[in-house]
Amino acid sequence: MSKNNLTILAVDDDSINLKLLKSMLNKSGLAQEVILAMNGSDAVEILKNRDDIDLVLLDIIMPIMNGIEAIKVIRADENLTQVPIIVLTTDETKKTEALEVGANSFITKPIRGNDLITKINDVII
Predict the structure, then answer these.
(1) What CATH number does the domain containing 33 carry?
(2) Looking at residue 105, what is its pLDDT?
(3) CB distance 102 to 72 below 8 Å
(4) Residue 1 falls within a domain, yes or no?
(5) What is the structure's pLDDT at 1?
(6) Which of 84, 93, 97, 109 has the fewest CB atoms within 10 Å around its CB?
(7) How many domains does the structure of the chain reveal?
(8) Residue 90's domain spans which residues?
């Protein structure tokens, strides 16, 4: 997997945040495709139906299925255990829990482009 043609799944219940993430990723040159989902349930569905996703950017606080629940479901699927997950949240207290259930890294909102790129480069080998 090359670092400049990643397929990235961005998950956030806020459409403005999704647009911002997509814009940052497109500007960075890292992503060849950015797939958007509005909750953890949709994200899990997309991951189960596509085997080309290189990275998940996952909000924690969402309706239907939150980020912590989504990580648990993703990590329980043996086909998805290797997909890196970077958690995005405003709630610092969720950081430890997210990492304990299987997130690879953590970004506090509001997200700055440089932080995002650095974190992606850290988790993509």
Answers:
(1) 3.40.50.2300
(2) 96
(3) yes
(4) no
(5) 52
(6) 93
(7) 1
(8) 6-123
23-28 long-range contacts, Cβ below 8 Å, gap at least 24? 24/111, 24/113, 24/116, 24/117, 25/116, 27/113, 28/113, 28/116, 28/117, 28/120
Structure tokens at 89: 């949240």
Structural contact between residues 55 and 6, judged by C-beta atoms closer than 8 angstroms = yes
Strands 105-108 and 6-11: unpaired
- How crowded is the C-beta side of 69, counted as CA atoms within 13 Å? 12
Per-residue pLDDT of the chain (125 residues; tens, 9 = 90+): 556 799 999 999 999 999 999 999 999 999 999 999 999 999 999 999 999 999 999 999 999 999 999 999 999 999 999 999 999 988 888 889 999 999 999 999 999 989 999 999 999 96
Q: What share of the chain is helix, strand, coil (3-state, %, to 5)?
A: 40, 20, 35
The verdict on residue 119 lying in a domain is yes
Number of H helices and number of E strands within the chain? Answer: 5, 5
How much is the pLDDT for 40? 98
Strand partners, 87: 58, 106
The reply to whether 106 falls in a domain is yes
